[in-house]
Amino acid sequence: MGTRKLDNLTLEEYIALEKESGQRFEYHNGYVVAMAGGTLIHGRLCSRVNYLLQRDLNSKACEVLNSEVKIFLSHSNSFVYPDGMAICDELQPTEDVEGAIINPVIIVEVFSESSEKYDRGQKFHKYRRLSSFQNYVLVAQDKMYVEVWYRPPGADLWRIDIYEGEEAQAHLQSVDIQLSLSELYSPVKEQLELAAKKAAEVEKS
Fold first, then answer.
1. For residue 134, what are the contacts with CB-CB under 8 A and spacing of at least 6?
2. Which tens digit of pLDDT belongs to each residue from 136-186?
């Protein structure tokens, strides 16, 4: 998340702000926060997870959308940007705001130390009110680690499965596919290994 915050904007002012500035903003019932640019690792992982999802979901008639598309959360009057999502039914856009949808089945967030609290907390709490939403996929930036949260259709309770390491295969229950952590992290493997090596050296010194 960025640091530029604006208060008490109407929905019309929010729409105009995004169009005029060319920036992405999240909207929370009048409160607006600019989306900051991500790190290289974040960008590569976002692209990779969306590519792998689309590749494996082609046969299931699901469409994967990236972070250019936002989700409208009517219960909190919010518009938020996930890092990725999949829709496995007819896509349902909002009527008044271009570039927003309301029916994701899978939502993906690639989290960092600074965004983890928001992605796990306030953002997930708002996502959970979406009736279509079944899988929440949290991808770590600093190690090979993925959490998959799952809520069966018609249920209220979520279960969590944790996957770690190069050999792990994360199961996305809503669409019955496996997400290989080896494939997911392959573009950034060397960067992660280098970062881990530097961290170990710092601990020894």
1. 105, 106, 150, 151, 152, 153, 173, 174
2. 999 999 999 999 999 998 888 999 999 999 999 999 999 999 999 999 999
CA dist 199 and 203 (Å) reads 6
Quote the tokens at residue 111.
């989290």
Residue 30 backbone class (left: φ over 0; alpha: ψ -120 to 50; beta: rest): left
Residues whose CB falls within 8 Å of the CB of residue 184, separated by 6 or more in sequence, listed in order: 45, 48, 49, 52, 139, 144, 146
Nearest to 33, CA basis, from 70, 62, 75, 63: 70
Q: Hey, is 170 helix, strand or coil?
A: strand
**Mean pLDDT, to the nearest integer, of 197-203?**
80
For residue 204, the model assigns a pLDDT of 79
The residue behind tokens 């965004």 is: 115
**Phi-psi category of residue 154: left, alpha or beta, with phi > 0 → left and psi -120 to 50 → alpha:** left
Three-state secondary structure call for residue 198: helix
Count of residues making up the chain: 205
The strand pairing partners of 136, in sequence order, are 107, 149
CA angle (122 as vertex; 121, 128 as ends), nearest 5 = 90
Say how far apart CA 141 and CA 192 lie, in whole Å: 8
Q: Which residues contact 150 (CB under 8 A, 6 or more apart)?
A: 134, 135, 136, 158, 159, 160, 161, 173, 174
